[in-house]
Amino acid sequence: MQPQTGPNPHTVSSDSQHGSAGPSATRFHELDALRGVAMLLGIVLHAAIFLVPDGWLKEYPSEASGTYTLVFFAIHGFRMPVFFLLSGFFTAMLWRRRGLRQLSTQRLKRIGLPLAIGAFTVVPITIWVFIPDEFEIVWWPFVWLRTFSHLWFLWFLLWLAAGFIAAAKLGVKFSHPVLWWLVIPLSLGPQLLMREPVFGPDTSDGLVPNPVVLGYYALFFVFGAFFYQRGMTMRRWWAAALLPALALVFPVCLTLLYEVRAGWAGPMAAALQAAYAWLMCFGMIGLFHWAASRERFWVRYVSDASYWLYLWHLPLMVLGYKLMLGWPISIHLKFALVCVGVTAALLAVYQMGVRYTPIGTMLNGKRTRRRSTPRQLASSAGPGLPGAGARGT
Q1: pLDDT tens, the chain, 393 aa long
Q2: Domain for residue 71, yes or no?
Q3: Residue 246 DSSP class
Q4: Which residues contact 314 (CB under 8 A, 6 or more apart)?
Q5: What domain count does the chain have?
């Protein structure tokens, strides 16, 4: 199928108040930034899981804090939904601009290859640092058959990209003016089938994806494709959705989940969890359209680096928490030290040994050192997060 490069009649020209999605728009700085922040929030989320009751390191139970349970729930309830929505958006954009063949090639380069390498490096290393006494080196090449660990989202992206390509070949345009809006209420279906006792979606990190979880994220993915295909206009006022999501929906849902025992509480909590995810998706898009719609070199740089940071943060985080286990300092200071220390260390590695190397090319596309101003550098750079579909990534 050839790239569809003609003008989109539904696209509205962007101005200082709003931006529009569609083939006539060249860059989406706010969505690049939001995608990077979604990745970085994964580092914060995982740092919090170590400190919740029954967290990842049993050595920390006496220090566990309910504060970090709230941090975990608040982030987990929307982070991956917004990430998959953006992935669908950029997948549709690459399809429109370059066609299905290049879309397939790009997905394999930016997602499939890092996952294949990570399955034999990142994943076994992560499991090894978690349980060094139980890990047998003979199982190193086979760990991924049981778990992709925190790289499960790359596996999901490959499934969703394959489904998108198949649908496009069958003639699906993802642009019906009414049909695709139905994915918002339809997300309640998978949410009702979630079984883990947490706020937000279940996790599926195995070789065979949980169809409920995959279906849930697929709805956000196809809505992102619809968002692009219809040339929908981003609005700053969408940021107002963050207030009811965080101040009303979130606390009420937690009350229903953990304090109300009536039979109606479960379905109502599921509906509120789905509402929270969508409110946060639109709210975060509005917030970033308001705050990050202009091109900034450092924002683009961090967005690029966030892929590398996310791939490798978890094993370093485990080692950091184990190192500080006996330190007589506040649990909050330990949390901050892990987040900042791991991020700083991986940023240094990214700059010195990743960004301008074949590894960086695999993750983000080729980057070239230039003696230029920051603005010129920003204009020449492009995003490389998984799910991106523009600017050669």
Answers
A1: 334 433 343 333 333 334 445 444 467 889 999 999 999 999 999 999 998 887 888 777 656 678 899 999 999 999 999 999 999 999 999 999 999 999 999 999 999 999 999 999 999 999 999 999 889 999 999 999 999 999 999 999 999 999 999 999 999 999 888 888 999 999 999 999 999 989 999 999 999 999 999 999 999 999 999 999 998 889 999 999 999 999 999 999 999 999 998 889 999 999 999 999 999 999 999 999 999 988 888 899 999 999 999 999 999 999 999 999 888 998 899 999 999 999 999 999 999 999 999 999 999 888 877 665 555 444 444 445 665 544 333
A2: yes
A3: I
A4: 46, 122, 126, 149, 150
A5: 1
Distance of alpha carbon 199 from alpha carbon 195, whole angstroms: 10
pTM, full prediction: 0.87
CB 115 within 8 A of CB 122: no
- Give dist(CA 269, CA 199) in Å, integer: 9
Place of tokens 């009649």: 9
Residue span of the structural domain in which 354 resides: 18-380
CA pair distance 298, 304, nearest whole angstrom: 10
Residue matched to tokens 């890092």? 114
Please give the distance of CA 372 from its chain centroid, rounded to a whole number. 31
174 domain residue, yes or no: yes
Q: Phi and psi of 245, rounded to 5°?
A: -60, -50
- Domain assignment of residue 390, yes or no: no
Residue 329 CA, chain-centre distance (Å), reads 32
Domain contains 352: yes
